[in-house]
Amino acid sequence: MYKNHQKIQSPNERPKLSGAKLRAYAYRLLGRKEYSKAELTQKLQQYAEDIDEVHVIVEQMIEYNYQNDERYAQQMFRSQLNKGQGPQRIKQKVQQKSVDLQFIEAQLESTNWLAEAYTLKVRRFGQEIATDPKIKAKQVRFLQYRGYSLDTIFKIIEMKEEDFEDL
Fold first, then answer.
1. Helix (H) or strand (E) holding 80
2. Which of the ends of the chain has fewer CB neighbours closer than 10 A, N or C?
3. Environment class of 102 (CB within 10 Å of its CB; exposed 0-12, middle 13-18, buried 19+)
4. How many domains does the chain have?
């Protein structure tokens, strides 16, 4: 297919890269954002002539510390926490990216999830304690979707501001 005398490539006709060009593509990808080992491998395989070369390049990126799953997992943890996600949701996201959960275990244990959930609840619904069952159910659904446990949710939807200051 041509447009203005230039051939337009369909996604199936991607140019195949090898050697220095494939390595340069890996550097370009990692220069923009962090990737897990699995994500980087998948991205490079889309353009590689030789799959074995992809594995060699990815191992070199790890060796030179351009790619690091622990750094990626910690960055993802901070990002998800800033978005108001709870522990289950964060674990799910990290596992979806094929990263070992051991990299964020310490952060998961040291985070005060009651305080995080309370802050999120106040930001979304205000400080007053809901008496209407429909509003309570809405708060529970919202926090469950965000990845907080029911134990945590039931504690914070009945929590007053004075109780929060004691956390």
1. helix 69-82
2. N
3. exposed
4. 3
117-156 pLDDT per residue, tens: 999 999 998 888 888 889 999 999 999 999 999 999 999 9
Do 73 and 104 touch, CB atoms closer than 8 A?
yes
Whether residues 63 and 81 share a domain: the answer is no
For 55, the token pair is 């594995």
Domain assignment present for 5 = no
pLDDT single digits (tens) 15-27: 676 778 888 989 9
Residue 109 Rama label (left phi>0; alpha psi -120 to 50; beta): alpha
Cα–Cα separations (whole angstroms), residue 4 to 7, 73, 145, 164: 8, 45, 49, 65
What's the farthest any 2 CA atoms get from each other in the chain?
Answer: 71
Q: How far apart are CA 100 and CA 38, in angstroms?
A: 11
- Three-state DSSP at 51 gives helix
Which tokens is 7 given? 């051939």
- Token match 């991205």: residue? 43
